[in-house]
Amino acid sequence: MPAEQQDEEQQLREARERVERMVGRYVERGRYVLNPDPVTVEHVTAGLTRNLVTHGRWYCPCREVLGDPGKDRKNICPCPQHHADIARDGVCECGIFVSEEYAEAHPAAAQDPTIR
C-alpha cells in the first residue's frame, strides 16, 4: 500500500476516534442519548468524520457547509438547534442524538448489541 494511502487511512482513523470521543462525552454529560438505530449512528458518525477531515470541524452532516466560518459555526455538532429539534421531534435533525423517551419507544433497536 502506498505511503500516501496509509497516511489518509491513518488520518481517517484518527478523525473517527475524535468524533466518537466527542459524541460519547456529549452523551455521558448531556440529557440526550444516542439514537437506538445503529445504521443512523454509523451514517452520522461517518459524516461527522468526513467533515472533520475535509473542513477541520465536525459539522453536522445534515447541514450544508458554506465555507463561511461565521455561518458554519452554528452547524458544529452538537449544533445549537438540536435542543429545539429534540424537544419538538424527540430526535435532532441528523438523527444521532435523541431524547430518552424516543429511545425507549424503540426498544428493539435499543437492545441491538452493535450499538456503542
Shape, please? globular
Terminal CA distance: 30 Å
Largest sheet: 2 strands, antiparallel
In the CATH hierarchy, the architecture is Alpha-Beta Complex
Task: Return the CATH class.
Answer: Alpha Beta
Q: Give the integer mean of the pLDDT values.
A: 90
Radius of gyration: 15 Å
Instruction: Please state the structural category.
Output: mainly alpha
How do the strands line up in the largest sheet? Answer: 1-2
What fraction of residues sit in β-strands? under 5%
What does this structure look like?
Helix content is 57%, strand content 3%. By secondary structure, the protein is mainly alpha-helical. The longest helix is centred in the N-terminal third of the chain and has 27 residues, at 3-29. It has a single domain (3-110), classed as Ferredoxin Thioredoxin Reductase, CATH 3.90.460. A two-stranded antiparallel ribbon has the order 1-2. It is built from six helices and two strands.
Protein traits:
116 residues, mainly alpha, Ferredoxin Thioredoxin Reductase, 6 helices, 3% strand, globular, disordered C terminus
List the helices and strands and how they pair.
Blueprint (H helix, E strand, L loop, with lengths): L2 H27 L3 E2 L3 H18 L13 H4 L9 H8 L7 E2 L1 H5 L2 H4 L6
Antiparallel strand pairs: 1-2
Helix pairs in contact: 1-2
Brief digest:
This protein has a single domain, classed as Ferredoxin Thioredoxin Reductase.
